[in-house]
Amino acid sequence: MLEAPLSRNFSHCTFVLRGFPSLQKHRRLLALPFSASYLLVLLGNSLLVYVICSVERLHSPMYLLICTLCFVDILVVTTIIPNMLLGFLFDWNEISLVGCLTQMFFIHFLSSVESTLLLAMALDRYFAICRPLRYNDIINSSMLVRLVLFTLVRSVSVMATLVGLAGSLQFCGSNVIQHCYCDHMALVSLACDSTSRSSAAGLAVIICFVGADIPIIFFSYMKILSVVLRSAAAGEDSRKAFHTCSTHLIVMMCFYLVGSITFLSHNLNIPIPTDINNSMGLMYILFPATINPIIYGVRTKEIRDSFLRIFKNRAKKIMTVKVSSAGKEKS
């Protein structure tokens, strides 16, 4: 581990990830809650994906978006947690520059995809509640294809630029990244030369995603709320619409609030203790991925009923097999 300043002609090719520096003596204990969180993310999101894929009546745009969101959550958490656990348990903390940039790209790319999915979910609810007669004309397979293309073009181009600028820097000082994973500004802060372009690119990412997506999401839900309050006489339908939208808003607030604080603290040089910054960076990834199955699975009646129906059918099949096996043994 090299921490002394070196010649500017030299640039590190290997880095050391040092998350939670003040808790290094207890790093093996840290593996326990993160292992549990990772298992919950895998189990909850995989179960939700399975239920939506298995039940044909859930193959509508809103549920397909939820299914995609769960799949993205699994990918982004898997990009971070297994490598972090290896560091906590076996001190495998080293990562190459190429490996670091690759991890950085996929973390930020998948997070930007999640932002686009949350935007698409807000627009889906807007057209379903505020423009119900035009819903099937607007939200269709063609629209979903355009959404995929838009997501790929926006996320790949912006994140490739962000990572490319970080990769072009010289790292001749410390090679210790004060984070659990290769965060953009945590790596850029180690550079010897000017980081103004990388810092500007980080702010551009916030503007491109948070600054562009949040106003549209906010406008969509304000219009939805207005329609729901005006049609309060509709009773059950209004309560169902309000319940669905409140569910989506809980997820979005968690995702954007923590993510914005994490990004801005680096780019605006806001002094936040390293351990707290590490916790916020992990919470930004782990918290939405952990609560999404609870919010969409437990709070959404259609998914909850479908899960219970699948569970009951599987239980009946198991009981039938056991009964038939017992009958054969007696005979």
From TrEMBL:
<keyword id="KW-0812">Transmembrane</keyword>
<dbReference type="InterPro" id="IPR000276">
    <property type="entry name" value="GPCR_Rhodpsn"/>
</dbReference>
<feature type="transmembrane region" description="Helical">
    <location>
        <begin position="30"/>
        <end position="51"/>
    </location>
</feature>
<dbReference type="GO" id="GO:0005886">
    <property type="term" value="C:plasma membrane"/>
</dbReference>
<keyword id="KW-0716">Sensory transduction</keyword>
<feature type="transmembrane region" description="Helical">
    <location>
        <begin position="200"/>
        <end position="221"/>
    </location>
</feature>
<protein>
    <recommendedName>
        <fullName>Olfactory receptor</fullName>
    </recommendedName>
</protein>
<feature type="transmembrane region" description="Helical">
    <location>
        <begin position="281"/>
        <end position="299"/>
    </location>
</feature>
<dbReference type="InterPro" id="IPR050402">
    <property type="entry name" value="OR51/52/56-like"/>
</dbReference>
<dbReference type="InterPro" id="IPR017452">
    <property type="entry name" value="GPCR_Rhodpsn_7TM"/>
</dbReference>
<keyword id="KW-1133">Transmembrane helix</keyword>
<dbReference type="Pfam" id="PF13853">
    <property type="entry name" value="7tm_4"/>
</dbReference>
<feature type="transmembrane region" description="Helical">
    <location>
        <begin position="144"/>
        <end position="166"/>
    </location>
</feature>
<keyword id="KW-0552">Olfaction</keyword>
<feature type="transmembrane region" description="Helical">
    <location>
        <begin position="63"/>
        <end position="85"/>
    </location>
</feature>
<dbReference type="GO" id="GO:0004930">
    <property type="term" value="F:G protein-coupled receptor activity"/>
</dbReference>
<feature type="transmembrane region" description="Helical">
    <location>
        <begin position="105"/>
        <end position="123"/>
    </location>
</feature>
<keyword id="KW-0297">G-protein coupled receptor</keyword>
<dbReference type="InterPro" id="IPR000725">
    <property type="entry name" value="Olfact_rcpt"/>
</dbReference>
<keyword id="KW-0807">Transducer</keyword>
<keyword id="KW-0325">Glycoprotein</keyword>
<dbReference type="GO" id="GO:0004984">
    <property type="term" value="F:olfactory receptor activity"/>
</dbReference>
<feature type="transmembrane region" description="Helical">
    <location>
        <begin position="241"/>
        <end position="261"/>
    </location>
</feature>
<keyword id="KW-0472">Membrane</keyword>
<keyword id="KW-1015">Disulfide bond</keyword>
<feature type="domain" description="G-protein coupled receptors family 1 profile">
    <location>
        <begin position="44"/>
        <end position="296"/>
    </location>
</feature>
<comment type="similarity">
    <text>Belongs to the G-protein coupled receptor 1 family.</text>
</comment>
<keyword id="KW-0675">Receptor</keyword>
<keyword id="KW-1003">Cell membrane</keyword>
